[in-house]
Amino acid sequence: GPASGRYTAAFLSYLRRKGVLRPGDRVLIGRDLRESSPAIAAGVATAIAEAGCIAVDCGLLPTPGLALAAQAANAPAVMVTGSHIPADRNGLKFYLATGEITKADEAGIFESLQDIAETSSNAVAPRDDDRARGAYFDRYRAAIAPDALAGLKVGVFQHSSVARDDMVALLRDLGAEVVPLGRADHFVPIDTEALGVAETVQARTWVRAEGLDALVSTDGDADRPLVADETGAFIRGDILGILT
To answer: Is the pLDDT score of 4 beyond 70?
Structure first.
């Protein structure tokens, strides 16, 4: 909506003040599977065009995939996602070419916001670039041996994760037998750090019923992992980090 256009305009104004954005530069856009994400992404594209920059739509992809594309293109990026919060809420995640914005950057964006009036409602068609999503998952294919997961049967809890199909393809390419599970036909918020009883029971049920060695998933914008072991017990993110 109008707010997302204003915040995007403030972000770009801040980058100009910092001297890291010039007219004609590219700004990348990505989004999750929420119903409101395409309309918000369109508003972001309009704000980018009004700032004299080139909006590049990377489509549906994980937030880290957009961040990787931003680093590769030496360009800032805006991810349209409410992450793991309920479907009726949405938001923006801002990235610099060097990575996610800092608290100091946030303060600078808020400062710029004071000077931003309403942004235009004229739709601007962004330039499409659908390579970013593939490049993100190919990075894993290049880093991990193609038979690394051979002999493992892995369930993928798909729900409405933006990575739901790519996870299945990637794990198969790495040698696993993959069972797609729980695909949602509308957006379902999954908080990987505060799972409900229903998800915990469901994981154990799937692992037993399918004879899985592991069950994996992510939150909505696929920047938080979710892994359950061969008993269906979830392994917390901090422990996953240590193991990795």
So the answer is: yes
